[in-house]
Write the structure tokens for this entry.
Amino acid sequence: MIRKARIADVVEIHKMLWHFSKAEKLLARSLSELYTTVRDIVVFEDEAGRIAGCCTLHIVDEDLAEIRSLAVLESHQRRGIGRDLVEACISEAKELGICKLFALTGEVAFFERLGFQLEDKEDLPHKVWWDCRHCPKHPNYCDESALVLDIA
Ligand SMILES: CC(C)(COP(=O)(O)OP(=O)(O)OC[C@H]1O[C@@H](n2cnc3c(N)ncnc32)[C@H](O)[C@@H]1OP(=O)(O)O)[C@@H](O)C(=O)NCCC(=O)NCCS
């Protein structure tokens, strides 16, 4: 079941992001940041009540938002959960009146399956990079691609 995150989910989300950050798949988030942004997060809860996936819709600007902190536990991957999480964020972005979504990711093929298209990173507004200052690979060793989806 895909649903909005709750305060009680945050410790599991934190653990999941920490797990994938060690493989440099995404940026870890502090517990504090997750609590303050919990309304931006959707989760996948499996039949056993376990939080097995998460995704954040982070609004950047009047017409731009980022899909970030996307993760699905290895045991649950390739079952369409990642797609459902991103699609839940796309629906919310549309409701909010956002025109364009982007993701900075190493999972290019996954996002292309969802209709995102590769874009030159330099074409994204500079404020997009604000978060990247926390990344040890920024800027010289950044190996992520920018993908965008127009939803207007
Ligand atoms: C990327 C990730 C979220 C995908 O989640 P998932 O639940 O396995 O993906 P889905 O099953 O919904 O896949 C949707 C489609 O993408 C394809 N796909 C998924 N992962 C893929 C990959 N690594 N390479 C190519 N295609 C992939 C699936 O085959 C499926 O294709 P379909 O349209 O033919 O059905 C998951 O692999 C993950 O958590 N990875 C580690 C964290 C990470 O890299 N996050 C991204 C940071 S932005």
